[in-house]
Specification:
Elements (H helix, E strand, L loop, with lengths): L4 E2 L1 H7 L5 E5 L11 H7 L6 E2 L19 H10 L7 E5 L7 H10 L5 E4 L2 H7 L25 E2 L1 H10 L3 E4 L3 H4 L19 E2 L15 H10 L8 E4 L5 H11 L6 E3 L2 H5 L12
Parallel strand pairs: 1-5, 2-3, 2-4, 4-5, 6-10, 7-8, 7-9, 9-10
Helix pairs in contact: 4-9
Length: about 280
Amino acid sequence: MSDPLVSTEWLAERLGGPGVQVIDATWFMPGEGRMGRDAYAAGHIPGAVFFDIDEVADRFSDLPHMLPSPEAFAQAAGQLGLSRDATVVVYDAQGVFSAPRVWWTLRTMGFRDVVVLDGGLPKWRADGKAVETDAAAPSATHLTPALEPRLVRDLDAVREILERRDAQVVDARAGPRFRGEVPEPRAGLRSGHMPGACNVPWNDLIGADGAMKPAGELRAAFEAAGVDLAQPIVTTCGSGVSAALLALALARLGREDVAVYDGSWTEWGGRADTAVVTGA
């Protein structure tokens, strides 16, 4: 895989052409009072379909936006007209925030050619590109269920990783949350982090313009946190969204094999039988 991010110029040159599909993956943190679907309706890239991570999710889990089964995903993605033969471009209305979650989801579900629009909708608008408000009406496609298990980890797998120390766990939450200095935004969760985890706050990887920082700065951020980029890595965060952003940044550094802990801190910090530490 080459750079997993593309520019607004790259997309504008190909928009509407054969073999390119666009997804609006806007999602806001709970408590912000905004909905991704409303942002999509207010203006989106022409032809983009809306992917709701809270809807295309495991309905049997009490954890937020967990991966659906491959069968459920194939049905939902088919209704959006998605094809594994296309280049799929994912973006969000914040810059680069929730789009990586859908980028990771698609890759986990067997899509090979998925990229993220660097700078997202804000950069697209700033560059004078067109937006529309009419919802896309794609023709349904048939997708065969598929799964790339190497890209996802569950609770038991993370427990084993922490016991064996055979992979690095990298947490994308802000430093005060990682260190347990502030309460978690979701009620009922303990504060702190998993034993031995490293901390690379996701917003340290994003520039003031909402685009991802250059590869050299990404590498420096991971190395400063003690991450060995040559060794296995699993990313985590609050609920699996910014963990995917770390995975995207690492893919930009050539690490296409990084797995995401899907349940993340909402699962780990909400249990009484998991180890939690505080401090640096």
